[in-house]
Amino acid sequence: MIKKYMRKLMAFFVALLGLTTACGQKNFENINVKGFAALTKDSNVVVLDVRSAEEYAEGHIQGAVLIDQGKDDFMETVQATLTKDKTIAVYCRSGRRSANAAGRLAGVGYKCVNLIGGIIAWKAAEMPVIKENNK
């Protein structure tokens, strides 16, 4: 009886380990500000800002395409706007939303990199941002 219970318990832990390992794997790369800045100069890279339009207007990385990952049509808009032959360099405010977006995009075949720390880290490194003119 105890052996049977132990086998079931062991099988449970093996399955749990497999699940946590699979869920822990990411299909995109996290990159620091210096590496992200280098990517923004590459013509084979599209810089994608996944924040809201209001956040984007407060300051964004030059040349960034805005597609709000919080909107219901995020994936459809990305697929209609961006091609899979370029690397997508994704950022948000702190890196959380962009990591989520990068994972979703990579899951459908995009090659993505995520800016660690988002635009907060970018600004802290005294990198330039573009602000929209408020009229």
Task: Walk me through the topology.
Blueprint lengths: L1 H23 L4 E3 L1 H8 L4 E5 L3 H6 L6 E2 L7 H8 L5 E5 L4 H12 L3 E5 L2 H7 L11
Parallel strand pairs: 1-5, 2-3, 2-4, 4-5
Put the structure in a nutshell.
The chain has helices at 2-24, 33-40, 53-58, 74-81, 96-107, 118-124, and strands spanning 29-31, 45-49, 65-66, 87-91, 111-115.
Describe the protein:
- The chain has 135 residues and is an alpha/beta fold.
- 47% of the residues lie in helices and 15% in strands.
- The chain has six helices and five strands.
- Strands 1-5-4-2-3 form a five-stranded parallel beta sheet.
- The chain starts with a helix and ends in an 11-residue tail after the last helix.
- 28% of the residues are buried.
Can you tag this structure with a few keywords?
135 residues, alpha/beta, five-stranded parallel beta sheet, 5 strands, 47% helix
Report the mean per-residue pLDDT as an integer.
Answer: 88
Assembly annotation: single chain
Q: Which spans have pLDDT < 50 for at least 5 consecutive residues?
A: 17-24
Secondary-structure element pattern, one letter each: HEHEHEHEHEH
User: What is the end-to-end distance?
Assistant: 77 Å
Residues in helix, %: 40-55%
